[in-house]
Design a protein that fits this description.
The protein has 201 residues and is mainly α. The chain has helices at 7-28, 35-42, 56-80, 85-102, 104-111, 122-133, 137-144, 152-171, 181-196. Helix 4 crosses helix 5.
Length: 201
């Protein structure tokens, strides 16, 4: 008779499955990975994953939700320390870069993947909203402090676009060998900071 699984057993296996799936999805693309291969990676029967997730799409959603949550946690922690608004914004950017470089597989699944069924998974949706919020909260603080003026969401997305663009070029090896990504990011942000007049008032 099959062993009755506790909630802890279920959660532990779900975590193991998501870890294996993240690596396979990032390496080969979600479309190329089968449930059988996921089961094989964990040394279980082909039907075992179905006891924990409806299908591969649900696994992908869980993997991405967990990654977005880790990402948001990292940025929230970076911005929680006592500091002035400009320092908080810089800290958020540093945390963003550190996460992407430490977890490149997760980062690419989060932002470089189109999952048409995203709206079917409330946990994933909530994690995305939470992560997106970290892109604007530090900008709002700078506006409140009088360091800049404008639409916080739009400015936050501008910073986000710059970070993401350079990081994706870096992670995919598309930057020219002569380009230092750290210097490129510094130049981009110093240019934008001057344009926005941050710290110059």
């Amino acid at each position: 008779m099959p062993r009755v699984l506790s909630s802890e057993d279920v959660e532990a296996f779900r975590r193991r499955l998501c870890v294996a799936a993240e690596a396979l999805f990032a390496e080969r693309g979600a479309e190329a990975v089968t449930m059988r291969e996921l089961a094989q990676a964990l040394g279980v029967s082909p039907m075992t994953p179905y006891r924990y997730f409806k299908d591969k799409d649900a696994i992908l959603a869980a993997v991405r939700a967990a990654a977005f949550a880790r990402f948001a946690t990292a940025l929230e922690a970076a911005m929680a320390r006592p500091m002035d608004p400009l320092q908080r914004s810089r800290s958020a950017g540093e945390a963003y870069i550190a996460f992407a470089l430490a977890e490149p597989q997760a980062y690419r699944l989060m932002f470089d993947l189109n999952q048409p069924t995203e709206g079917d998974y409330p946990e994933l949706q909530a994690a995305i909203v939470r992560a997106r919020r970290t892109m604007t909260v530090h900008v709002e603080a700078m506006i409140e402090a009088g360091l800049l003026a404008g639409d916080a969401e739009l400015i936050g997305h501008m910073f986000w676009s710059m970070l993401h663009g350079v990081l994706m070029l870096q992670l995919t090896g598309k930057l020219a060998p002569t380009i230092d990504p750290t210097k490129l990011r510094a130049l981009l942000f110093s240019t934008v900071v001057r344009g926005l007049g941050i710290g110059g008032r």
